[in-house]
Amino acid sequence: MKAEFDSTYPIHLNGIISPDEFRESINKINRKIISNKILISLAIVFTLSMIGGIILFIVGGLTSVNSRTYGFSPLLIVGICVTIFGSMFFSIGCCIVQFRRAARIRQVIAEESMKYSSRSPIPCSWRLDTGNVVGGYGHHNGQIGYHVSIIFL
Question: Model-level pTM?
């Protein structure tokens, strides 16, 4: 699934916005979506914490078996904590990224709306609509989908 808005010019905008202006506006909105640097950083931290946690968990289990002492090895506990921390960090980070991305998209759409509402022959307003993405066989797949609506006033 592409993470951008379609820049195909809708025919019902003839005489209101030129095709070039429409593509320019949609490209400006799409540039706000594409930033994946933070997601890559989150994925790296998640992967390293999972690998580190599993290694610590295995080493802690082996040292507790070899030492013939009862109870948990400190490395075992640290491994579990690192794994849990990595999962929580990744989950919370993804939520924050999603909220910030939506805020950036709303901001740039509001700017585009202001630009066209004052000078268009027919007043219009741009807004961001959200909804669930529908997958195969009409099932919702849990992802949020965005749609830019242009409303004529």
Answer: 0.64
CA pair distance 106, 123, nearest whole angstrom: 19
HSE toward the beta carbon, residue 77, CA cutoff 13 A: 4
The CA distance from 80 to 23, in Å, is: 50
Structural domain boundaries enclosing 64:
16-118
Q: How far is CA 8 from CA 82, 124, 146, in A?
A: 47, 19, 16
Buried b (16+ CB within 10 A) or exposed e, 101-123: beeebeebbeebbeebeeebeee
**What is the rounded average pLDDT of the residues 31-42?**
78
pLDDT in tens, 132-150: 555 555 554 556 667 677 7
- Bridge partner residues of 140 (DSSP): 134
Residue 63 lies in a domain: yes
Alpha-carbon span 153 to 151, nearest angstrom: 6
Position 123 in a domain: no
